[in-house]
Amino acid sequence: MDAVESVMLSIRGFDFTNDYEALMWLENGIHGGNVSVEELRERDASRVPGLAWGRLVAVWDWQIVGAIEAQQKPDPFQGRSEVRVGVRPDHRGLGIGTALVTALETALRDAGGDTMLAFTDELEMGYNHFLWRVGFAESARGYPQWLALPGYDLERFSVNWDAIREAGLEFRSLSEVRFEWDCAQKLYDLYCTVERDVPRVDDWYIPKPFDEFCADIFDSPSSLPDGVMLAVRVHDWGMEYVGCNILYLDSGGRVLHNGLTGVRREARGLGLALALKLKGIEFARNNGFDGIKSYNASTNDAILKLNTKLGFQRQSAILEWRKRI
Question: Fewer beta carbons within 10 angstroms: which end of the chain, N or C?
């Protein structure tokens, strides 16, 4: 990447041999953490193979005082790169962040990129203003939510269980059905069908590859077959999967993450989404988990309202920013 120079400032590529210690001091100074050189090296080594990434640093008076990273997004969004920029607090207001963004924008454009993405917390007022000032525009926002489980009262919710039974529907966990010969394919078909209806910023839906889906659901450290609740209709030929609520183990101790909740269009109107959510909450509470995390786009009004009804507490929004290059 070409250098951008001023009297005291230069922008250059990151030196993977000599710059990690300076990057450590920069990151800890910006974020107040205690990350080590070894952790930074491991983070870089764990990047997704086949996707381009890079880092530029800002050098002021022979010291690294800022950095910007870009990580290419997977196909079909390979023209997009997620960026993260940071400048040492005592060197802000000098145009260093703007110079980093400008240099990265040039490098990405030369490499065939078309869009820069950034993600922030809505409470990061200064960073949000900076992104706006250098040409980013807010493109989406989503809400993390938290449900505390100790003392949770399931009985306060009314579900028409009789209507669900009369529709021929029953509930099973993935653990109970996973040994059906076609379980993985049926679950994948349900997942893709339901996820296609989830509101999204982009107009097209790209399903997760089957092998990747199976690895996430069945074989990853976060997979929890007992916490995957299915609404099924039993036939002579086997089970038809019509709805799901997927819980994953979260990295944060006795906490679960709520993934996709959804019901096939032809089975909506029976309160199945509420019933599936309650089944998941019951499982989590009975197994001693402290809470459930969820994350939904602001455009997904139906699930946000359902989560609010269930007692999920909305946290500060995560903003997505975009800049065409």
Answer: N
**Residues 215, 210: Cα–Cα separation, whole Å:** 9
Residue 25 to residue 65: CA distance in whole angstroms: 9
Which of 3.40.630.30, 1.10.1200.10, 3.30.830.10, 3.40.50.620 is the CATH number of 145-317? 3.40.630.30
**Nearest one of 286, 305, 266 to 169, comparing CA atoms:** 266
pTM: 0.87
Closest Cα to residue 187, out of 132, 259, 109, 94?
Answer: 259
Q: How many CB atoms lie within 10 A of CB 190?
A: 22
Single-letter code of the amino acid located at 4: V
Sign of the Cα torsion 90, 24, 5, 102 reads negative
Residue-wise pLDDT tens digits, 265-287: 999 999 999 999 999 999 999 99
Q: Does domain 4-113 have CATH number 3.30.450.40?
A: no
- 20-31 and 37-45 helices cross at what angle (nearest 10)? 100
Summarised one tens digit per residue, pLDDT across range 62-118 is: 999 999 999 999 877 778 999 999 999 999 999 999 999 999 999 999 999 999 999
How far does Cα 318 stand from its chain's mean position? 10
